[in-house]
Amino acid sequence: MGLIIPRGIIMHSMSEYLVYEGKELYAKDFLRKLGLSVHGFITPDGTYDKMVETPSRAAHAGKSFWAGINGLNSHFLGVELLVEGVNDYAGFTKKINEPGTYTQAQFDKAVEVFGWWKKQYQIPLDNIIMHSDCSGDHVRGKGKGKRDPGLAWDHDAFLEALRS
Q1: Which of the four pLDDT bands, split at 50, 70 and 90, describes residue 164?
Q2: Is pLDDT of 1 > 80?
Q3: Strand ranges (DSSP E) for the chain?
Q4: Strand-pair category, 23-26 with 8-20
Q5: Using CA atoms, how far apart are residues 77 and 61, in angstroms rounded to an integer?
Q6: Most exposed: 10, 41, 57, 105, by fewest CB within 10 Å?
Q7: Within 13 Å, how many C-alpha atoms sit on residue 148's CB side?
Q8: Whole domain around residue 105: which residue ranges?
Q9: d(Cα 63, Cα 146) in Å, to the nearest integer?
Q10: For residues 22 and 24, what is the distance between their CA atoms, to the nearest angstrom?
């Protein structure tokens, strides 16, 4: 996949388990089936599950743009917050907008992981973004944009915790 010089980090979210070809798959296995990847997953209990070694390139952002940079896979690290359980797309999109979807353990682990990367790679706070910030409708077209991690993720509180 190749090494990158990380210029930022993208917070994603997806279902912890998905049904694919009639089988229930863990998120990491689902991404592998699709030929996608992310640097890591943060489970509801706060466990970090690595998929791609940093600073290797992962295929997580797709069509994306931020701060004058196109194609963020070659420039940004990515983490998936896992939404508990098996969720279809409709259920997932509903959950990511409901308070309480993400756990305190996930928040705390995300602060730890992103904080380490921020320091390790000298990433500015302005380049710690949500998937919806760099791949929303404004980039992918009306109705085609990414919405994760949704309103359930308090990104302002997250950035404030990273500021400390």
Answers
A1: confident
A2: no
A3: 8-20, 23-26, 40-42, 48-50, 65-66, 69-70, 76-86, 128-130
A4: antiparallel
A5: 9
A6: 105
A7: 22
A8: 8-163
A9: 10
A10: 7
What the block records as the tokens of 111 is 């602060």
Percentage of the chain surpassing pLDDT 70?
99
Instruction: Find out whether 52 and 1 touch, Cβ atoms under 8 Å.
Output: yes
Check: pTM over 0.70? Answer yes or no: yes
Q: Is residue 2 part of a domain?
A: no
pLDDT tens digits, one per residue of 101-141: 999 999 999 999 999 999 999 999 999 999 999 999 999 99
Mean pLDDT of the region 79-85: 98
Residue 18 lies in a domain: yes
CB 72 within 8 Å of CB 66:
yes
Which candidate, 110, 112, 124, places its Cα nearest to that of 6?
Answer: 124
Position 62 in a domain: yes
How big is the chain by its Cα radius of gyration, in Å?
15
CA 163 to CA 78: how far, in whole Å?
A: 19
The count of domains in the chain is: 1
Residue 133 lies in a domain: yes
Nearest CA to 7 out of 152, 162, 117, 100 is that of: 117
Both structure tokens of 65: 């743009």
Give the C-alpha separation, 145 to 132, whole Å: 7
